[in-house]
Structure formats: structure tokens, C-alpha cells
């Protein structure tokens, strides 16, 4: 039997979905007893050039052609953003259609509303592709690891920034060159500042944390710092010190208190995360019974993301056949407190100061007075009479580092503090 699908959006991800559904239709029919067929595809502009796998006759600019068609039982949303994606998904769920989406913006911000609507209407809402591209993360956390209390999540969950940092480190590309390349390859969001400023990773961390830590997680619970301040100079200093720079997402549950952060960090070259390059993502998970696990794979791009979308389609078809649709939602009732991490860690700081006798002594004095101990110092002359000074500290708290930064900014000979990043061990 054929099951008709409506596809909302046919860009990087949507076009990959069309190709993969066609390629796998026979296999999926064997696996599930239902043959998926994409009947209609919603786009903004029907005249735009599309891959040859897209049948122009299926294109429409009217969402009603999908949402009001009773023959369409499943909707795949790959438009992105909040509206009109939210409106379309809610309408599809209310019309009794199952929904598969790759939209992390929407799930991170309106997850409870969407999951409740699906539950009420006894249909599936599946969003594996929203986090980590091809890597199965949502389902393992929801199902396979449900027997463990998860205490830690740590990883690289944005392909674009990882691509940019890898290319700045390994190929000497400038930030702008690397970003343009990531856009050309289809990794970046339509507004790439979501990637660069860490928001995309924050949305993904909120989604993962809500499942792993069994809590409602608001996006505002995640402290976010992107990679805009990371320059070629930081990449070079990090290299000299034996590190690479990565945008890490870190979530912890300490006895019901959550700390959630996205921030650029120095990772030792020997650390497994240091070898996760280009658009690859990786996530460490620590659970009390399961121990430590690491998930790794392609975190962005057309086919890797389509692979997760079509995996969800197959689950929805199986659920339809078994008559168990609408039970995949895992609604979470409680909300744990989120606060800044109190863990101590070494920090990397780069600042510019006048290059004259006594200046470094003044800087060192501030570190002494704020009780942040230095473990390593590098200095390079930059422009006439100025120098870049890099300090790596021993373990310090974020609060002590904030005070140190404030005090240093008051020094007459310090012109600017460029970057402050935690250092992983
Ligand atoms: N790119 C990636 O690697 C990944 C993306 N995602 C997520 O997948 C989703 C899609 O991303 P991506 O494929 O890169 O995005 P694209 O910008 O490449 O594609 C968006 C598609 O949606 C259509 N569209 C946009 N607005 C409307 C509208 N108002 N009405 C009808 N159609 C509309 C566009 O139509 P038209 O073609 O006519 O312009 C286009 O086909 C996003 O939620 C993204 O975050 C998730 C994981 C990885
Ligand atoms: N822009 C995102 C796409 C996948 O989620 C990324 O770069 O990771």
C-alpha cells in the first residue's frame, strides 16, 4: 500500500529527502508494508532551479494543497525558522497527519506546544534530524539510554562552526572564507549568525538536555557564546600551547540542578573531540548505568540530514502499521533549576597591552589579587609598542575570571581583552 507524504520546503534538506525516499521506497515498503511516496512539495518559488530528482509537477506554493489533502497522511517539514513552520506543523497535527521535522528552532522554542498537540491528536511528531544531522541522538537518549540517569552531555553539535574552526586551523582560511564555503556546502542556516553566534548549538543543547535530563528546558537556560571573537591569532596561540579551538556544548545535571553552556573552548590535541573536524559532530554522554558513550558522524548537509529525516519517516510508518502512533512524544512534566556551572576549570585569555616595562607586572598583580593563578604565559609583539599577551590559568571559577577581566579592563596599559575561553583537560 502507498502512503502519501507532503513535503514542506525543498532546499538543502528537502531535496535530499526527495532523493532518499525515492531511492529507498522499495526497501521501506519491504520493512514496513507501506510504500512512501512524496505527492506534493511546498516551496516559496516554483521557478527556482532544482535538482533533476524534483518533479516540477509536484511543486506548489499553496500550503493547503498539502495540509487540506486528506489523502496525505504524513508531512515532512524542512522549511526552517518559526513561522510559518509552526503554523503548518500545528495544522498538520490537528488534521491527524504525522509530522517529521528537522527544525530545531521550533522544537527548542515551541516543543511542549507541538508535542502536546501531537499527543492530543494521536499522531507522531519526530525530530531526530533537528540535532546532529545523521547521528542518532534523540532516539538513543529517549529509548536506549532511558535506563540510566544521564549526568553529562558534552560535544560539538554545530557543523558550520566546526567547519569554520577546522578550516582556520588546518587550511589557514580566514573566518569569512570558511563561512562562505560552509554556506556553499549547505551546512549553514539561512541566517548564518545562528551558527556563528552559538544559537543553533544552544537550541540543539536545549533539545538534547530536555530529553537526557528529563526536564523542561527553556532556551534562555543555555548560556551562549559564539565564535565571532575567535581570530587567527587565537588559533595560532592555541596551536603553540598544544590545543585546538572547538565550539563545545556542555550540559550537566548535578542532583537536579542543570548547567547548560555553549562556548568556544581549547581542547588538547590528544583529546578525541580535537579530531572531530569539518562538518562532523560528536557528543559524549555519561549515564550512571551506561557509563561513557560517544556518538560521532556528519552533523549537517543534505544527505546526512535526509538520512535522519527518512529514518523518522520509517518509524512513523511502523507505528502506523502497529497502531501505536502518538506514543513517541515523551512529554516531560518537571522543570529543573538551571544555573551557572560552579565547576573549576583552567582558562585561556588573550589581551593586547602596551609593550613596556612594568605592564606585565601590573597584569600579574591583578591575577594575584583576584586569586586566579597563572600556569602559562605567551607574548608576541603586534603593532608598534604593543603586544598580544596570552595567559593560561590554573583551575579557576567563572566568577573569579569575570572579576579578573573587569579589573584588567581598568588598567591604563591594557587596550583590549580579546578572548576568554575555558580549557578542557
Ligand atoms: N542544512 C543542514 O545541514 C541542516 C538543516 N537542518 C534544518 O532543516 C531545515 C531546512 O534547512 P535547509 O534545507 O538547509 O534550508 P533551505 O533554506 O535550503 O531550504 C528551505 C526550503 O523551504 C522553502 N521555504 C522557506 N520559506 C517558505 C515559506 N514561507 N513557504 C514555503 N516554502 C518556504 C524554501 O523554498 P524555495 O526553495 O522556493 O526558496 C526552501 O525550499 C531548517 O530547520 C534547518 O535548521 C537540520 C539539520 C541540518
Ligand atoms: N546549521 C546547522 C545545520 C545542522 O543542524 C549546523 O551547521 O550544524
From TrEMBL:
InterPro entries on file: ACT-like_dom_sf (IPR045865), ACT_dom (IPR002912), Asp/hSer_DH_NAD-bd (IPR005106), HDH (IPR016204), HDH_cat (IPR001342), HDH_CS (IPR019811), NAD(P)-bd_dom_sf (IPR036291)
Domain ACT: from-to ranges: 348-422
Coiled coil: none
Residues holding L-homoserine: 189
One Pfam family matching this protein: ACT
Recorded catalytic activity of this chain's protein: L-homoserine + NADP(+) = L-aspartate 4-semialdehyde + NADPH + H(+)
Residues that coordinate or bind NADPH: 104
EC number(s) stated in the UniProt entry for this protein: 1.1.1.3
Highest taxon in the source lineage: Bacteria
Annotated active site: 204 (proton donor)
Enzyme class per UniProt: oxidoreductase
Cofactor: a metal cation
Annotated positions binding NADP(+): 8-15
Keyword terms, alphabetized: Amino-acid biosynthesis, Metal-binding, Methionine biosynthesis, NAD, NADP, Oxidoreductase, Sodium, Threonine biosynthesis
Pathway, per record: Amino-acid biosynthesis; L-methionine biosynthesis via de novo pathway; L-homoserine from L-aspartate: step 3/3; Amino-acid biosynthesis; L-threonine biosynthesis; L-threonine from L-aspartate: step 3/5
SUPFAM superfamilies hit by this protein: ACT-like, Glyceraldehyde-3-phosphate dehydrogenase-like, C-terminal domain, NAD(P)-binding Rossmann-fold domains
Molecular functions (GO terms): homoserine dehydrogenase activity; metal ion binding; NADP binding
Gene Ontology process terms (BP): methionine biosynthetic process; threonine biosynthetic process
Family under the similarity heading: Belongs to the homoserine dehydrogenase family.
Cited NCBIfam families: PRK06349.1
Name this polypeptide is given: Homoserine dehydrogenase
Native organism: Alicyclobacillus ferrooxydans
Top-level taxonomy: Bacteria, Bacillati, Bacillota, Bacilli, Bacillales
